[in-house]
Input
Amino acid sequence: MNHAPDTRDAHAEATSPSYLSALVSNALHSHRAGQLDAAAPLYEEALTINPIHVEALHYFGVLQHQRRNHAAAASLLDNALRLAPTDAICWSNRGLVAAALAHPEEAVRCYLQALQLQPDFADARNNLGVTLQAQGQLEAAVHQYQQALALDPSMADACLNLGTALSKLERYDEALACYEQALALDPHSAEAHFNAGNALTAKGDSVAAIERFRRAIELRPGFAKAHINLGSATGKLGNYAEAEQQYRLAVAINPNPTNLVCLGGSLAAQAKVDEEMVFYRHALQIDPNYVDAHQNLAWALLKRGDYAEGWASYAKRWRPVDYAAIAVEGVQEWHGEPLEGRSILLVGDQGFGDQLQFLRYARTLEQLGATVDVCVREPLVPLAQTAPGVRRAWSGNAEGRYDFWVPLMSVPSCVGTELSTIPADVPYVSADASKIDAWRVRVDEAAGTRLKVGLVWAGSPTFGNDRYRSMSFADLAPLGEAEDIAWFSLQKGPAQAQLADAPVGFQPFDFTANLTDFTETAALVMNLDLVIAVDTGVAHLSGALGKPVWVLLPFNSDWRWLEHRSDSPWYPTMRLFRQSTLGDWAPVMANVVDALRSEQV
Output
């Protein structure tokens, strides 16, 4: 009679301690070699044989964490810790899993437990620093990284993390020293070069940052973030074509909304409006709520004169932190509801020029039956108080008892402004009569009977496109060819110092020390025949006062000036002079000189 084979010896061998030990050893060997698919079934077999094998539980948990199966990893590590509660390494790994599960307080508790068991555990200190940094506890994170490096000066990761925390604290020189230390430990660290580039960018050294980003890309081809930051750094130097190239490389690697919007922005800087909109729309297909895409698309649409879609997209421009900064607590935001007999607060957003441009809407809302107050930046309050429709202008935190509030720049969307319905009655602000009289004496004494022309050649250096929006005073030199003109500087800020090098024969009268606020500037402008300015708050002020103003625009001009036009539907007394080539002011100035001669005929 035949009998089945006897398998008892084979089973005994498969469950023997030596077999189990070899199984776990092989699993660990494959795991450490990065062969997760080979290691996983070995851990599983070991745990089938012995479900309470601490080492298998621990490192199978680590493997699951590496596979992003964080819940499974937590369960395995918790089982291991119940069996071996004094295993500092397991506690530290459990902290990593807690952090991955967005449980930062639990992660901190795990790392502290690991450090209580093993105070010289440098990895646990570094990991604790990462969690503290993610919670915004930067000083505490710096301390942990420093402690980790004191225990193990060879920890390149801790050097990088310390540098990042110091950068967030704006201690850039210290951060750069950390990145150099990291590179001494690992000369091929793309991350160290990338982070150094970020610190140099924050310091304003775009040239040095570019070198670092290029090196990061050499070390790690396909480093999309480095391509993005390299594009941004070259863009800051005005090289938008190079920025476009870098952004295209980043989009090819990772076409996420951020990268798509960056690429669109580089095209906008080159006045390629049709092309830029494609990338904003693509970004919105991926994330319909991506605010930067809405804002940039809005600017492109408005520049094209498509106000219906443009204002609708512009209404979605808010990041939560920016919106919270101007929102009026306890008051409903206005979206176009009836205003008859209601009160509304207009809250100024963005810069002086923007607020001056949109103050005109106070009269529009008053005509709809509202009582209108405005909250604007402090230097604009006296002028805003003169705007028709404004009951009260003030500055500070937007608050009070109103039926509605609305950002100033959202009003056109709420009232359905089209190009043909822009409220363009000027003036809609006025200068103080006594100040006008006081300035008349000084201006007439200086100019006599000559044509009186004010000049502004530069805006704020912090403006994103200031490299092309602003000029140097030397660029205005051709104006000296025009005869019988008295020039007056209206230039404030760092560019005012350029007057020291003004050539003989073209030296404007400079009363800017007495232009202590917008009311003084307005009074001086009211005594001039013409203002010639780049795109700044003074250009808007002159237009709002109803004074003749010629605005000199770069090829990549702002949305509000539309395209190709020499006039502005926003300001009837304004004339626009546009570059035909980005950065080339010479033809613009030639046209201005010709126009001045025509004015004098």
User: Anything to note?
Assistant: Residues 489 and 510 are 5 Å apart (CA to CA). The first strand starts at residue 332 and ends at 333. DSSP finds 29 helices and twelve strands in the chain.
